[in-house]
Amino acid sequence: MQVTEVIKEAQNAGKTKFSFELLPPLKGDGTEGIFAAIDPLMEFDPAYVNVTYHREDVKYVEHADGTLEKRVVRRRPGTVGIAAAIMMRYGVDVVPHIICGGLSKYDIEDALIDMDFLGIHNVLALRGDNRRGEHTFSAHPEGHAHACDLVRQIAGMNSGVFVDGEVEKCHHSRFCVGVAGYPEKHAESPNAETDLKFLKEKVNAGAEYIVTQMCFDNRKMFDFIDRCRAAGISIPIVPGIKPFSTKAQLTMLPQIFHVDLPQELVSEVEKCRDNKQVRQVGVEWAIMQSRELKAAGLPMIHFYTMGKTDNMYKIAKEIF
Questions:
Q1: Residue 273 CA to its chain's centroid (Å)
Q2: Closest of 247, 19, 17, 280 to residue 124, by C-alpha
Q3: Cα 111 to Cα 114: distance, rounded to the nearest angstrom
Q4: With a cut of 70, which residues of the chain have pLDDT below it?
Q5: Claim: this prediction has a pTM higher than 0.90
Q6: Cβ-count burial 153-171 (b if 16+ within 10 Å, e if not)
Q7: Torsional sign, CA 178, 181, 186, 189
């Protein structure tokens, strides 16, 4: 089922459902860790599972003569494969991520063709992060620099248009395309108004729903939804929640994801003696956010789990 159909079904039933995000295993690992993370959550009937895509990384190897060799490595390959494995094992819909970073248009097309063969009909289209150590985003020379262009390629493929041109009498894919939205604006946008303009470009390119960046303040989430609607963006918006889990995230999350943390949350985390207590604070905060979002009638909530779902289990047990 397409994500938009799942959202509409939940809305018509007056329910709130949830999805959650997982990372592909590190290169060389098997499926055991992924399945162990998913197994406990299946009793709560998740709507779908997102699987992230990670671009290539760079490492430098020092030789005996002191020279450095630059090597490109991929630490978490296998997004499409692990998405298919999840779908086949659990019978749940999956949403693989696909990014601009490190991929040519042909690479993207090949990945989409594989998804279509496997019966995967949802995708989250993202520009992706900068490569580690780079201050600006570098696109593949034969790829896309912006998510809106990636969305256009996927929408074009749905219409039978491929990189090499239109294919006569082809089987048309039917991908439901999601994109990212930023309640506190993307770090590279000069202001919220410009950021909203970029989001609308992705919608006009063919995006069918929006998943927000993690946000710890529901007032900002509701304001973002209101601003989207005022700007003429009418597609579904799925709020994203990250259960807080370590004291280090007090500085790491604002630095990496450019989000503000409410002072009340910061104060509670600072009182904690260890990360076990921090995880419990994070569970309680996520439950509070989820209850507010559910009471507001939002049909879907997305959770960023980073592969650890013990706290997600506690949240789902209270809310879903």
A1: 31
A2: 19
A3: 5
A4: 56-59, 70-73, 133
A5: yes
A6: bbbbbbeebbeeeeeeeee
A7: positive
